[in-house]
Amino acid sequence: MKAVVLVGGFGTRLRPLTETVKKELLPLVDRPILDHVLDHLARHGVHEVILSSPYLEAAFHPFIEARQGDPTITWITEAAPLGTGGAIVNALGAVGDGPFFALNGDILTDLDLTGMLEAHREREAVVTISLHHVEDARAFGLVVTDERDRVLEFLEKPIDPIPGEVNAGTYILDPAVLGAWSAVGELSIEREIFPSVIASGGPVFGYLADAYWLDLGTPEKYLQAHFDLLDGKVHGVTYEAPWIAATAGVDPGARLGRWVAIGAEARVGPGAQVDDSVVHPGAAVGDGARVLRTIVGPGAHVGARSTVEDCVLGAGARVPDAVSLSGLRVPTDTEAAPA
Fold first, then answer.
1. Are 274 and 291 contacting, i.e. CB atoms less than 8 angstroms apart?
2. Nearest residue to 211 via CA among 233, 243, 242
3. Which domains does the chain have, with CATH numbers?
4. pLDDT-derived band at 58, boundaries 50, 70, 90
5. Is the confidence at residue 247, as pLDDT, over 80?
6. Could you tell me if 320 and 304 are in contact, meaning their C-beta atoms sit under 8 angstroms apart?
7. What are the pLDDT digits (tens) for 100-125?
8. How far apart are CA 328 and CA 131, in angstroms?
9. CA 141, 110, 190: angle at the middle one, nearest 5?
10. What is the distance, to the nearest Å, from the Cα of residue 116 to the centroid of all Cα atoms in its chain?
11. How far is Cα 44 from Cα 1, in angstroms, rounded to an integer?
């Protein structure tokens, strides 16, 4: 079984973290987000993955070289941005003749891919779309299915908060159904390819599962993914909480909450308090500092006796001693201005 994983997003909502690190390569507890995605695929029998992106290919080279075991990785560089549909069509030469998975590289899920593939084959589907139930669909749009789970239509994002099933970003595709499309210009699989296949009568089915699913596209969701992993809410992955890298240095007098991840070579000084936060590799939290609901980027420094809450510090950002910051995003290699 093969999979196409799309890693071409710009990660705009996660800036300044993504000013220096590609979104899919941001650390998620002990390894990059993309490692979690590939590990999940491997657990369900996927032995080869095609990674596709229109830019920053060089950023992925160290990751690909360091990756061990299943799945093997084939890299495809898009000559120009092709959108979700165009990128998948562009990868058809590498996937073969059988059904394959296609998914976004910034989703954390424990979706039963094996069960999804069985359902795809039993229904003789040409497309199967993973669905997730939400209580408020305003951020997603809705997928309408019949009593047999056949997809009837896609609805735009509702104005009012209503519950329903949304597209969870993991697909099984029959290569033949994509034969009519070409990878020329941007093409959306959600807005163009799927509606066209449905309109032509092609068997497109939804696969609704009670699985963990989270889009990691914002700082809040990125933090939540850490909390959920540390709480054991993602099947197949287990961590001690708080999680401290073997090469990190945490003073015995520091106080760490349960929902905390401290990266490699990071330092937390005496009397410091870290709660509901992620401290990236090489970052430092000074003596007596307080870090609350904050992402401290790689190599960033929180000064002694300072308080940062609900902040995102870019790589190499610096917070002076004895200041308080709330709700700020401090750019890469920048000193935060005291309030």
1. yes
2. 233
3. 2-217 (3.90.550.10), 243-330 (2.160.10.10)
4. confident
5. yes
6. no
7. 999 988 899 999 999 999 999 999 99
8. 34
9. 30
10. 20
11. 9
